[in-house]
């Protein structure tokens, strides 16, 4: 059986506290999938960054990597930067299958959950 990894890929920020919700998301996903290595990687300003994390995972024997961009929309980073990075990773690690999911904010279920939250902030009339 292939060893699998799920990488939650976020932008990164200068303030370490910015990563807290992404760390909680990682921990929640890991708790629900104990047989999958769930990690968090950043595009910039924070570590680990995606290339270093993928290299580490492949060295540890991971053969299937799924990258989930935890971005609300498909701006330049998701449309241009990530595909280039993933293509370089596929070349550098041909022994691993690397796939990319749609940006979290483009997924209908995620948008519905956010909408439910927003509506719920109004409270009962």
UniProtKB/TrEMBL annotation:
InterPro entries: CbiX-like, Sirohydro_Cobaltochel/CbiX
Pfam families, per database record: CbiX
Entry annotated with the keyword Metal-binding: yes
UniProt keywords, alphabetically: Lyase, Metal-binding
SUPFAM superfamilies from the UniProt entry: Chelatase
Database matches in CDD domains: CbiX_SirB_N (cd03416)
GO molecular function: lyase activity; metal ion binding
Keyword Lyase set for record: yes
Protein name as it appears in the record: CbiX/SirB N-terminal domain-containing protein
